Amino acid sequence: MNQTAQQTVRVDLEQGLHMVPCSLIARTAERFPCEIHIQKEDRSADAKTMLDLLTLSAENGSMLVLQASGEEARAAVDALARLFESNFSDTDPGSNC
Amino acid sequence: MHVKHGIAVSPGVVTGEVLVLGTEDFRIPQRFVSIDAVESELGRFRNTLETVWSEIKENERLASDRLGDQFGAIFGAHLQMARDPKLIAEIEQLISERSFSPEYACSRVLRRFAGELQNLGNQYHAERAVDIFDLEKRILRHLLGQRREELVHLTAPVIVLAHNLTPSETASLDRKFVLGFATEVGGRTSHTAILAGALEIPAVVGLGHFLADVSGGEMVIIDGNHGEVILDPDEETLAQYRELEQQVHSVSERLASLKTLPAETIDGTRIALWGNIEFPEEAEVCQGHGAEGIGLYRTEFLYLETNQIPSEEDHYQAYRQVISAYPDHPVTIRTLDIGADKVPETHDEIGDDIVNPVLGLRSVRLSLHNLPLFKIQLRAILRAAVDGDVRVMFPLVSNLLELRQARMILSDVMDDLEEQQIPFRRDVPVGIMVEVPAAVMLAEEFAREVDFFSIGTNDLIQYTLAVDRADPSVAALYRPGDPSILRLIRAVIIAAAKYDVPVTVCGQMSSDPMFIPLLVGMGIRKFSSTPHAIPELKEVIRNLTIEQAEQIAEHAESLDLARDVENYLRGELNRICPDLVF
């Protein structure tokens, strides 16, 4: 069944959305069957591709829109939003990696 | 279209497709595969990818265990990158739809991503390009496995772009397929540059970082006259260069017709034009360009080519080969002129304590330090001299004691040969390279004890101006036209004239037609240059009178800036031979 979901999140990482958070986003996103995009101003990245996410160049404090459409869209957006809310802290120590 | 500026080391203009040599020696052996191989190549790519994934996972586990989770996370990110669906789709598409080889497809796609990151204008992201290169290397390492191929196995014409090329890599370039090359590092007098000149392919070095923008396969123009590399040229530029290519070609055809004519000024003064060589095979190239002898045979390639000390027989055979091309003309053999760091066994002995190789144990110092090594070479030279007009020349002599010691060893070797009843030649002329300012200061004293001088301009400029041309940050300070250099050359000529010692000028300065009127005007009558420059030098000489040359020298020597000297000389050359100034 087709659904859409959307939520705005804020990047709260000193280094911005760097390599490790990008990899965590992609790793989370790929678990869902729906299409997920992350939009920053006029740029949009496929949340399942880490290289795309890197090119968003989302710095600390930037606002991102999580958009999903398709099966489990809501769950996907929630899962990603949780990553941002927890500041990627489960696995990422916020280091300079 | 990107234009990059570097140091022109080998003239000519060429247009072609790029082949990038990775910084870690990964050479993409072929860019395309045949249509019926596409399926199996796709399979090879997927298998490789799986190996790469498990390798990164293993690294992630090890790093987490030993260093902590935050370090493991780096590899976690690498893994995610290697599994990126967009990346994989793009690579597979290039393989299946355009028959790219997996190596070429991976390299191209990853480099494009790296370029995108670098162009975001953010330091952090620019540095992430390194992670992508790391992934590229990892994939290529697995893809190539035992299939890593040498440059020698090229099958289609390309222009080679690399971070650096070693002299042996340069030497192994196949002229049939390598149209030209450009490197990020290197200088005018590096061995790589010297070899490019010998191979007669256009080359530019010292371009600084530019390879991240290039994946291979795109069009590139190498302008070896101006030291420019143009990536992805637009149509207009391409057309312009193709025309220039034609023009250069027709000038060199005309110059080739001078081959059999003498190098003689308008007013009838003969000038000797000799060739510089590194490999014995080049003696024939010298003949082809009308060189009347070998003014500088750089023998160090005997040491650099293999990882072994060459035997007396290796030396002898190499010298014989050169002499057989020039049985009745001068063949000037320079003894070993490299640092101890480049000689296998010596290196083991002295270890890694070399502080500054340029000012260290090298050239004649190394020979005098390692007499068995020196004697092997001298024996071979004296034996080979039986069949020709051989001269022996010691490099980097900086005090009289070194010359006297070297001569003493030479006469010891003669005694040994005589005792062993081995045929050799006793009256071999002995000369020195004048390439250290100290030798210029003492030129009169040296002139009493040698049969000839050869001014080695490359090192003389380096030691006088304290500039390493291979270092791009100071390369612009390396100026043959510097008034200090002209004054040193003048001093050598005056001292030599007192004792009737002939002076040759070798090095890049004597291969540049712009300096010929000046040097002839100063009194130089013998030049030794890269063989391909000889027709041009001859053309200049044949359009010059001694009086005119003397006036040019007088004016050039009155100027006090290198820039003014070089601009003036370029202008004069333009009046003498307009079509040599491109």
Structure keywords:
heterodimer, A: about 100 residues, alpha+beta, Histidine-containing Protein, Chain: A, four-stranded antiparallel β-sheet, 3 helices, 4 strands, about 30% helix, about 25% strand, disordered C terminus, B: about 575 residues, alpha/beta, Glucose Oxidase, domain 1, Enzyme I, Chain A, domain 2, TIM Barrel, 3 domains, eight-stranded mixed β-sheet, eight-stranded parallel barrel, 16 strands, about 15% strand, globular
Largest sheet of chain B: 8 strands, mixed
Secondary-structure element series of chain A = EHEEHEH
Number of domains of chain A: 1
Count of domains of chain B: 3
Helix content of chain B: 40-55%
SS strand fraction of chain A: 15-25%
For the residues shown, what is the average pLDDT of chain B?
A: 87
CA gyration radius of chain A, whole angstroms? 12 Å
Described by the principal axes of the CA atoms, the overall outline of chain B is: globular
**CATH third-tier fold name of chain A:** Histidine-containing Protein, Chain: A
CATH H level of the largest domain in chain B: which superfamily?
Phosphoenolpyruvate-binding domains
- CATH hierarchy, class of the largest domain in chain B: Alpha Beta
Going by helix content, strand content and strand pairing, the class of chain B is alpha/beta
